[in-house]
Write a structure and sequence with these properties.
This protein has 8 helices and 6 strands, in the order H-E-H-H-E-H-E-H-E-H-H-E-E-H. The chain is an alpha/beta fold. It starts with a helix and ends in a 9-residue tail after the last helix. Helix content is 45%, strand content 14%. Helix 5 links the parallel strand 3 (110-114) and strand 4.
Length: 250
């Protein structure tokens, strides 16, 4: 670490209020492919380095006291990418189920997978379930890994479940509330994200947490995900703490 980076880190650590951290941080891990292209490497190399960044950032977030982190790892739209890249992503994800997430689990991280699991192989689904069962009693950071996740798909899932309840006569259409949808989302037992971070220079949510992000604070940067540092996370948190969250009030 250079003297400049060391000074920046110390300065941020002095300014961040660690007693007032966002309870839930969502992260759109974007920019792996562009990072690799800039270095003349195949896109798959960017995903491999991005996986290491993911592990480091999640561990750091838990160490400083963040309660919930959700990472957007693979969207419902990502299947449209070239087959070679999708296959490489699946291999990286499976490797992390076997090794990387196991390391996080050993650091008292409780792991959840959110999204439609039906598109994955039975072996892959069993690995997800096994990891959830093995970390269920961990009391530290709650980590949501969004795989084959889409915000619109999540809302459609909730609406279908409500429609079934209406057909059964368990609920009247006029009695449906926002809470009926909220409690049928993948993160129903968790607080909505206070802060959503997206590196890479894109300024959109890309179908991430469309229901839960109604009052989330958004933080964007031009940093590509493989280069995202612990200090960048502190910068996002510090900016978040300077904002006035009124939730529609004055």
């Amino acid at each position: 670490m250079s003297l400049k980076d060391l000074f920046r880190k110390k300065s941020l650590e002095q300014r961040v209020d660690f007693d007032n951290l966002p309870k839930h941080i969502g992260i759109i891990m974007d920019g792996n492919g562009r990072w690799a292209k800039k270095k003349g490497l195949p896109r798959t190399s960017g995903h491999a380095v991005g996986a290491k960044t993911f592990e480091r950032i999640v561990e750091y977030a838990g160490n400083i006291g963040v309660k919930v982190v959700t990472v957007y790892a693979f969207s419902t739209e990502n299947w449209r990418r070239p087959k070679e890249e999708v296959d490489a992503l699946m291999n990286i994800l499976e490797d992390y189920l076997d090794h990387g997430l196991e390391r996080l689990a050993g650091r008292d991280v409780q792991i959840h997978f959110i999204g439609d699991r039906s598109a994955f192989s039975e072996t892959f689904r069993k690995k997800q379930l096994y990891m959830e069962e093995q970390t269920a009693k961990n009391m530290g950071l709650q980590l949501n890994v969004a795989l084959n996740y889409g915000g619109r798909d999540e809302v459609v899932k909730a609406v279908r479940e409500i429609a079934i309840e209406v057909q059964k006569g368990n609920i009247k259409p006029e009695d449906i509330t926002e809470d009926d949808i909220s409690k049928r989302t993948y993160t129903a037992s968790q607080p909505d994200p206070d802060l959503i971070i997206r590196p890479s220079g894109e300024y959109r949510l890309s179908n991430f947490f469309l229901w839960q992000s109604a009052y989330s604070e958004l933080w964007f940067s031009n940093i590509l995900w493989p280069d995202f540092s612990n200090e960048d996370l502190l910068s996002a948190i510090y900016d978040y703490q300077k904002r006035s969250r009124r939730f529609g009030g004055v």
